[in-house]
Design a protein that fits this description.
This protein is of the alpha/beta class and about 525 residues long. It is about 35% helix and about 15% strand.
Length: about 525
Amino acid sequence: MNWKRPLALSLAALSLGSALTACSNSTAGTPTPSAQPMVESPVVNTDAVKAPKYVFLFIGDGMSYPQIQSTSDFLGALNDDDYWQAEPSLDDNNGATLDGPEYLNFMNFEAAGSAVTYDSNSFCPDSASTATSLSTGHKTYSGTINMDETGTTPYETIAEKVHDQLGMSVGVISSVNLNHATPAAFYAHQASRNDYYEIGLELVESGFEYFSGGGLLKPTGAEGDQEDLYALAEQAGYNVVKTQAEAEAVTEGPVIIIDEHLADGDAMAYELDRTDDMWSLADHVSKGIEVLEQDEDGFFMMCEGGKIDWACHANDAASTIHDTQALADAVQVAIDFAKEHADETLILVTGDHETGGLTIGFAGTDYDTYLDLLEAQKISFAKFDSDYVAGYKENKTSFEDVLKDVEELFGLKTQGEEGDKLVLTDYELSQLKAAYEKSINGTAASQYEQEEYVLYGTYEPLTVTITHILNNKSGISFTSYSHTGLPVAVLAHGLNAEVFNGYYDNTDVYNKLADMLNVD
């Protein structure tokens, strides 16, 4: 049941859909023509709008315009035979022209909006607060899930409302942990996103019909002395499935499917590391449809591409791009379903915030990009850490031997033919050697702690330096190891898609859904 990469592309003539209105911000004092308060998004006239029976909400965690566009541009570069010949730095392009990006399927949805993402204490918000905005229509503090700023008043989620008021079945899917912030924001109410056990208890108590993806964090509590969440789920009537063979045999809910091939952080593997025999995010969506569509009242499905965010935190552009493609593959499953239910299905694709300050362009490459160089990376940063760097530390592997693996897995080399962009410069080699010494021998790369953080963040110095060098050679760069304040795309397809056009606050994603579904 594996879904392959071509599903993520729309091969017909494509357009981005409706143009976006200009951004406006609220400022203190009297508004000026260039700084007007954000206009409240109009509500849906529920008397004139048919409510969708099937609602898909896809959230690319950490996914904003840069993640979408870099993926699209990367695919375009791979399929452009004279891409490099068209580079602006060349004196003679010999008539070569850039073919341009290959659009992901959701880039061609008929409605295109943008959502502002700030929360109650930051323009660079976190996943808990932004997912709260998407699921309840309320702002709150970073780190808080579906509670007010005091941590005392809970907010009911869109998933809970359609489940309780409309009788719709609900599915929650994530490539990361099912009690992580974003999936939790559709069923839990906690002052701290780190209360994983308490969030897990709410998952069990939710009564939702389908949970699928990464494993539960702290299933026996922070101290390991609580009753196992999986056992509690079974007692509550859930079929808890932990092997792929069992998952493929599932035909009905309530069910909790834990991906058999868990990787870093008990999450699903990065798409770059996934093999063909392992379930993809699209497979989890396909099984979810099979389980949920039995309900005559319809269903609401939230699917999170959570490892986009994790890859961006680590400044791993190749892994980011592959997991963005994996999300598009999952969206394709919904698109195919909608073809059979065209007048009763709504598909939304959005992000909760941007992560990493990803951008297309780097000071060292000027106006040139070499995005296809990212294809040289064969492994995610996390798998390189676990499968290689851990051994280097234990065995004190020489720098020369490490470089052999770096060439095989990332394409970076010390020698090559003239014009080979993957050949390390003396400057890059010195960066890599300093990072190696930091990772393997603990030798400080700088006398300044601040400089070391800028260089490595909280990541393995050797690994993050490798991805930084490859990113930069390709013309990609990051500004942060955290989140940024960029708006996110809101792309809609199907019934009532047009109401998601415009530029609005992320709370209005909830408001628009709640209005058209007529829940309160």
